[in-house]
Amino acid sequence: xxxxxxxxxxxxxxxxxxxxxxxxxxxxxxxxxxxxxxxxxxxxxxxxxxxxxxxxxxxxxxxxxxxxxxxxxxxxxxxxxxxxxxxxxxxxxxxxxxxxxxxxxxxxxxxxxxxxxxxxxxxxxxxxxxxxxxxxxxxxxxxxxxxxxxxxxxxxxxxxxxxxxxxxxxxxxxxxxxxxxxxxxxxxxxxxxxxxxxxxxxxxxxxxxxxxxxxxxxxxxxxxxxxxxxxxxxxxxxxxxxxxxxxxxxxxxxxxxxxxxxxxxxxxxxxxxxxxxxxxxxxxxxxxxxxxxxxxxxxxxxxxxxxxxxxxxxxxxxxxxxxxxxxxxxxxxxxxxxxxxxxxxxxxxxxxxxxxxxxxxxxxxxxxxxxxxxxxxxxxxxxxxxxxxxxxxxxxxxxxxxxxxxxxxxxxxxxxxxxxxxxxxxxxxxxxxxxxxxxxxxxxxxxxxxxxxxxxxxxxxxxxxxxxxxxxx
Length: 473
Prior knowledge:
Blueprint: H1 16-42, H2 44-51, H3 55-62, H4 64-83, H5 86-104, H6 110-124, H7 128-138, H8 141-152, H9 154-172, H10 175-183, H11 185-196, H12 228-244, H13 246-266, H14 269-277, H15 281-311, H16 317-337, H17 342-349, H18 352-356, H19 360-369, H20 376-411, H21 419-425, H22 436-439, H23 451-472
Helix pairs in contact: 1-5, 1-7, 1-8, 1-9, 1-11, 3-4, 3-6, 3-20, 4-6, 4-20, 5-6, 5-7, 5-10, 5-11, 7-20, 8-15, 8-19, 9-10, 9-15, 12-13, 12-20, 13-19, 13-20, 13-23, 14-15, 14-23, 15-16, 15-19, 16-17, 16-19, 19-20, 20-23
């Protein structure tokens, strides 16, 4: 597996085959990370109806309740990863989030499900910071964005598998079974990662590919003495890099804003297909999973390869590549959600995701290349702190609140107005207006209600979902 450096210094520490194996296992781990993180979006409509939730509550479960501890614990776990075995941290984290994902299937109330989602967030906080650090020690700077793009491919893979498997399991069995089935395999993967992946020396990838002298071999420097003062100084040093250099700051802000919209709208796309087109969960999981897997997968890989290729000519392309992608994708997204058939919507959605997801690998590559080896896990954690607390924590909640708000307006308006009128008009409803959440608990009319009310609940929620997603983009 691993090829130790001979005393003559004639071999690299790890073979290319072993590095590919490590990258593949980290990719699998990140895939499970996103399966367990995003499955709630696919089966959210079933949870909403069963537990009689509002879309704001769905947004909290998919966003803030997951993201809060995920982001808060990310930095201290990253600091541990700078000092201790990163492979152990990744494996232990995988066990924790997989176990809590399975426990979500036992939730009998919103409060219980929220508690388990907090647990998923705690576990997943230990995934990417040490993984980014490991990858950066296995791969040289000019290969780093490409390697990180392959690792980031876990996002579309996890989203796709979570959607397809989650939708089918929820449709054939129940949303509770879906949580259990997708959660438990992660525990087995954690054991494999711990047994196979080796901890490389910090900064190993900065060495010459085949050193000729023993002194050319990178030896990991001694760890500084632990103290709270040292820890805060280290975090402040990394923060100054991320927010003190304009190019890096612009990329961090850009990816945060872009992710706010994509996390928010993406959390309700599966529910939109159910509400607007009457598809079942298995169909929705297959459609959204394949769309997300293809478009986001291609975009993620292209972003890494393209930015590394163009970046050899000018480093500005690490910023221009994601900027151009986001500029192109937004109007295409809006066009997709204005369609009146699911076929047209699905076909158009294949296009913008390719341009959208080119931002991932260049951003991660720039951040990793901006700090020294011992600070890489911390850099990822600080990036994720702002990215996920604002975007993942706030995006789904904002979109869910917006859909609830627009549904309340549309339900009390005989002739639903356009989007702009609905946005402004929803703030001026009289106190005597009918409460949509009470009239349509879980978004559907109570059993035995008149057909007219059932139709009104359905059309109101479908229109509000379309409007909320478009605004969130």
